[in-house]
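Format notes (please read before filing issues)

Several people have asked whether sequences and structure tokens are stored in separate files. They are not. Every record keeps both together, in the order shown below: the sequence lines, then the token lines. Line labels are part of the format and must not be stripped during preprocessing.
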Amino acid sequence: LYIKSELHYLNIVTDQSESLVLYNLKDAIRELDANIGMQVHRSYWVAFAAVQRFRKQGREGRLKLRNGHVVPVSRSRVNSLREQLAAFQSSGHGAVSLQTDDIAGTTAPD
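Then the structure lines:
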């Protein structure tokens, strides 16, 4: 679903589990397919298929994931994320809500 950078470790969150591994986010992203997800914040990479809803809040954004976690989107990546999500949807991989209502859910653990 997503990867969160925590100092020199990565917290890798899937549907089934979470794992903490010694690795850096930059190298992990280089190994991932750019068509399945993107870095949405300096500390987060998210799989497009995991996104349930995207909401812009001021200049930044928030993603609600299908596991209920909420992930921040940096203002510098908001427009790129919108484009990538639209391309993902148009390729028939899934639907993402771009509603502007409040996102209720569990914030991704720090």
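For reference, the curators noted about this record: The chain has a mean pLDDT of 88. The first strand starts at residue 2 and ends at 6.
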